[in-house]
């Protein structure tokens, strides 16, 4: 097995493991854990469960989509860290805050393209942090999964947890 293929397989395992941890956290945060465990029958995940493929249904879950988004987000870390280092100069606090917001939204655009194959248009809102973007974007990626339902565990704490856990899951050692 080539090194790149091995690295890809390890990354895929990390995505799957992160997706499972996000799913467990969402169920723990849910007001109704039974509701949180249901997959809509009209979704690909629901079809896999109906035909007896319950073990592989997670690959079509919204949690795996979150994990893929976070994997791409983390892969851009070194690029944006070095860009900030090489900008040089002595910017003011306001300039630093403005550049940070621009970097976050530029990075969101790259992740959007890498995961979904679309580029954010002019109507795409700006986000102050990645957790806000994840909460906003996942509802469009999986509209049938009720990703705005706080009762099913889709709470701000879930997205904050996912961002922090992704830092550990995809950190380069």
In short:
With 173 residues, the protein is mainly α.
Largest sheet: none
- Give the percentage of residues in beta strands: under 5%
Uncertain parts: 3-7
Helix content: 55-70%
Give a count of the beta strands, DSSP E runs of length 2 or more: 0
Count of runs of 4 or more consecutive helical residues: 8
Order of helices and strands: HHHHHHHH
Shape: globular
Distance between the termini: 21 Å
Mean pLDDT: 77
- The gyration radius over C-alpha positions equals 18 Å
Query: How many discrete domains?
Result: 1
Q: Structural class of the secondary structure composition?
A: mainly alpha
List the helices and strands and how they pair.
Blueprint: H1 3-29, H2 33-37, H3 44-50, H4 62-75, H5 77-87, H6 93-116, H7 130-141, H8 156-169
Helix pairs in contact: 1-4, 1-8, 4-6, 4-8, 7-8
């Amino acid at each position: 097995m080539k090194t790149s293929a091995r690295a890809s397989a390890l990354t895929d395992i990390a995505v799957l493991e992160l997706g499972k941890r996000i799913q467990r956290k969402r169920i723990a945060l849910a007001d109704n854990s039974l509701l949180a465990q249901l997959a809509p029958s009209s979704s690909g995940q629901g079809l896999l469960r109906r035909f007896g493929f319950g073990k592989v249904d997670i690959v079509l879950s919204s949690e795996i989509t979150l994990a893929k988004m976070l994997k791409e987000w983390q892969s851009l870390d070194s690029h944006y860290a070095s860009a900030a280092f090489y900008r040089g100069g002595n910017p003011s606090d306001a300039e630093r805050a403005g550049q940070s917001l621009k970097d976050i939204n530029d990075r969101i655009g790259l992740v959007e393209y890498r995961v979904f194959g679309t580029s954010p248009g002019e109507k795409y809102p700006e986000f102050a942090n990645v957790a806000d973007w994840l909460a906003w974007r996942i509802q469009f990626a999986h509209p049938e999964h009720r990703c705005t339902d706080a009762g099913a565990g889709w709470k701000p704490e879930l997205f904050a947890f996912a961002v922090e856990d992704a830092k550990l899951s995809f950190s380069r050692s």
